[in-house]
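User: Continuing from earlier, I have the next pair ready.

Assistant: Great, send them over.

User: Here they are, in order.

Assistant: Folding the first of the pair now:
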Amino acid sequence: MTALVFYDFAVTFSTEVSEIWSSKFTGAQALFFSTRYSYILYTVLYSVMNFALNPSETVR
């Protein structure tokens, strides 16, 4: 799932810059940025927490 999130981010980033970042700031942009970047942040933190766990503690 993490790879899919970052793949989507990489593929759509150029369009995001040209369409979203270059226009006047609106409520729709605030909603877009909050949903897009909060999910990316969640994915990064979730992945870090999963990789930080010791596998011998999770398997019983």
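And the other member of the pair:
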Amino acid sequence: MLLPGSLYIVIYSLYQMGTYHWGLYYHCGRNATMQSGVKFHINLDMGSNHWMTDHGWTNGVLDSTRLIGLLRIASIPTYRSKDMMNLIERTPHNAQGITCRVWVLNAIQNLMAFGLVRCMGISWLENEAIAFGLAEDPYCQCNVQPRPTRQSRVCYI
């Protein structure tokens, strides 16, 4: 169940156990059954070998067959949602050593610096997300539905 005003780490399987595509998702639906929200992630453009942003509205965050699950990390009040979006969108995406995971973690660190995400630490959150992916990836491979949404144990919501 997705909660309106919540920010999630979204993890997708990359067909090999332990390899994932990471993104962020802010759920804006008026109730828990609506899937309307804003996705934030970067993709590697194979032609240019540069990371490209892919941010925007989506009604289908739960529809991907490669979705492992969503990890809820924050509750962002509506009046702070623009601040959240600006901080995420301004996170550099073509720095040396960037990957989708590193970009997500950098964006979360920016949000932590502004008090929008509160957790024990970024490495704790990274480890929790990786463990979540490892635990749920076999179910994704078998297309078990619905895909899980979990509350972070290291973030204070």
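Worth noting for the second one:
Residues 51 and 98 are 8 Å apart (CA to CA). Residues 6-151 form one domain.
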